Amino acid sequence: MTCVCGVGEDGGVVIGGDSALTTEDGDRILRSPKVFERGGLLFGVSGEMRVGQLIQHVFDIPAPEDGQDIEQFVVRDLCGRLRGSLREHAEELLPSAKDDEEVWSVLVGIRGRLFRICSSHGLRVGHRLRRDRFGGSPSAWILRLHGWESPR
């Protein structure tokens, strides 16, 4: 099972992930990353690894227009083109609208925002975290939640 997570803060995004691949023969270490940067966007892929390979090496990543709302860019341009590219290169990775199973998921970081694109035709928009709710920055709060100290 893959673990990919991210946080957006102060105009930047950090995404991290494991390097394991689970097969019928057991877990293996991947040489190709589940998290990578391409076209000014940060991607983190879980589930079917073919999606990550296509995004990293085949997909023609669009660029947001000057002044374009980032959520509009992701919903309209990025998701639309990604589905078109998958339809052309790996249609089997696009489940039918009736299928609720999530075959893959992609975290996308851009301009301090985090989005999650799901194979089940969904898009989740990361919400902005208020500093005062967490006693400091969101990343420091996550570190404290897991018992780690924030680097100084």
Overall helicity:
25-40%
The major β-sheet equals: 5 strands, antiparallel
**What would the average pLDDT be, to the nearest integer?**
79
How many individual β-strands? 9
Low-confidence stretches: 129-134
Q: What percent strand?
A: 25-35%
**Which sequence of strands runs across the widest sheet?**
5-6-7-8-9
Structural class: alpha+beta
Question: How many helical stretches?
Answer: 4
| Domains (count) | 1
Shape: globular
Distance between the termini: 32 Å
Secondary-structure element string: EEEEEEHHEEEHH
Rg on CA atoms, Å = 16 Å
What does this structure look like?
- It is built from four helices and nine strands.
- With 152 residues, the chain is an alpha+beta fold.
- The strands form three sheets. A five-stranded antiparallel sheet has the order 5-6-7-8-9, covered by helices on one side. Strands 1-2 form a two-stranded antiparallel ribbon. Strands 3-4 form a two-stranded antiparallel ribbon.
- A hairpin with a 2-residue loop joins strand 1 and strand 2.
